[in-house]
Design a protein that fits this description.
Chain lengths: ~210, ~250
């Protein structure tokens, strides 16, 4: 029996000291988890707690399913921290920090309308109400349309509506983005007007 | 060589290509980082494969072509392009269908192999320059330049302006086509485009310039990375219709 228990613990990763807010439900490739000063290799079914930092390697991605049912899909070469995930009565509040790369969130809110789900990047806050969206924070590359800005956030919406603001520029008005559209937040500037999602995939339209 | 969209002469083509260059680099010159991106190797590299097929029919003739294009990124703003296409031209009056030409119509078949560069001086601008050779019923060099630019990309309805010019040494005909399209609707699944465009061709065996034009309709299917474009209108070949399908697949290296 001790052998079996040991196997289970190895399979599910480190035992958290506090209650898990979710778990790893999909892993392709390699990813790491920092819990305080400890570093772990991510495995399927590993429990995730508040303030865990997750990092994916190139050609890798993972999915965290939160206890409330929402899913966080962290793309390759990306880093995120689960800052908050609290359920109190009918209210649920989640806050995720995307430090680098791409994060797709499938938000499942069954709680009260007062519930909140936010993704933060260094220069954007994305607040949602029951939706599916993707956030990317990119450093070291010119922002499309703002070539002198070398750090920016892109938010694309696949379902529902999100509101995007730039916390480093409180005077800049937030932008509402509906499904099928996206916005870009360059440096300390206001989020751009919503534009069709994934125009780069369309490329140069026309007749060949 | 016979072409569905043929026009002008060798010298006009050179001028058109020069104009494309100027259009492509006017905006880039204002961005200092754009120049260094020309030399910075892409990391990771990206390889894309585009499959395409197109059909054109008019009162006077019809064409079909299908092929593929490979594009390999080299630097952040320069990619290598290779394209292979099989053409069939149905010349003559009275054919019932390009697929089943009537006995009094004649069919000409040839392949086209091209290679060149795709320059992207700014994220919303693309200039593809290709050179190549026809083999089969047409067997002569061909040169091509394709310019595309997004206008007001950060808006609900971005506009796309595209201009393409070809010169066929088989018959010394130069052709060009211009299209202006807007994204009129975007959802999580599709983008719908609408606009207008047309073609002008002349020189060589065609003689004086001829043209045609009409409305454009297009749909882009996100899940399949596929585009379907339609145009119908009127011009020198009388009533015509054009349908084009393409699908792009890409790999990061």
């Amino acid at each position: 029996m001790p052998f079996l228990v040991c196997l289970v613990l190895l399979g599910a990763g480190p035992v958290p000291a506090q209650a898990p807010v979710g778990s790893i439900t999909e892993l392709v490739g390699t990813a790491r988890l920092w819990r305080g000063k400890q570093l772990f290799d991510v495995v399927i079914k590993m429990a995730v707690i508040v303030r865990d930092k997750l990092q994916t390697m190139p050609k890798s991605h993972l999915t965290v399913t939160l206890n409330g049912g929402s899913q966080l899909v962290l793309a390759e070469s990306s880093t995120m921290v689960i800052d908050e995930d609290v359920t109190d009565g009918g209210r649920a509040d989640s806050r995720i920090s995307l430090l680098l790369g791409h994060l797709r969130a499938k938000v499942y809110l069954t709680a009260s309308p007062a519930s909140s789900f936010e993704v933060h990047t260094p220069n954007a806050v994305v607040g949602v109400r029951g939706t599916e969206f993707e956030t990317a924070y990119i450093e070291g590359k010119p922002c499309p349309g703002f070539p002198t800005c070398l750090r920016y956030t892109e938010v694309g919406v696949y379902k529902g509506v999100v509101e995007v603001s730039n916390p480093t520029n409180p005077s800049a008005p937030p932008v509402r983005v509906t499904q099928g559209y996206e916005t870009t937040v360059p440096c300390e500037l206001a989020p751009s007007s919503a534009a069709p999602l994934g125009m780069s995939e369309l490329g140069a339209p026309g007749y060949r | 060589m016979l072409s569905s969209d043929a026009p002008l002469s060798r010298h006009p083509f050179t001028r058109v290509l020069a104009m494309m260059f100027v259009l492509s680099f006017v905006g880039a010159s204002t961005a200092a980082c754009a120049v260094s991106d020309f030399l910075q190797l892409t990391s990771p590299g990206h390889l894309s494969l585009t499959l395409f097929a197109s059909g054109y029919g008019s009162d006077k003739y019809g064409t079909t072509h299908e092929g593929f294009e490979l594009e390999q990124s080299v630097t952040n703003q320069v990619s290598l392009v290779a394209r292979a296409v099989a053409y069939s031209v149905y010349q003559g009056t009275g054919f019932d269908s390009p697929l089943l030409p009537a006995s009094r119509s004649s069919t000409r078949d040839f392949g086209r192999f091209q290679g060149g560069l795709d320059l992207a001086p700014l994220p919303d601008i693309s200039l593809v320059i290709l050179g190549g050779e026809d083999v089969g019923d047409s067997h002569a060099p061909v040169v091509e330049g394709d310019f595309s630019s997004w206008i007001v990309p950060h808006s609900l309805h971005p506009l796309n302006f595209s201009f393409s010019a070809n010169h066929y040494y088989e018959n010394e005909v130069t052709s060009s086509r211009i299209d202006l399209r807007a994204i009129v609707l975007s959802t999580a699944e599709v983008m719908l485009l609408a606009g207008a465009g047309g073609a002008i061709w002349g020189g060589g065996s065609v003689g004086n310039a001829k043209g045609q034009g009409g409305p454009d309709l297009g749909v882009f299917l996100r899940r399949w990375h596929a585009s379907i474009d339609l145009q119908a209108g009127y011009g020198s070949s009388h009533t015509y219709g054009l349908v084009s399908f393409s699908r792009r697949i890409g790999w990061d290296e």
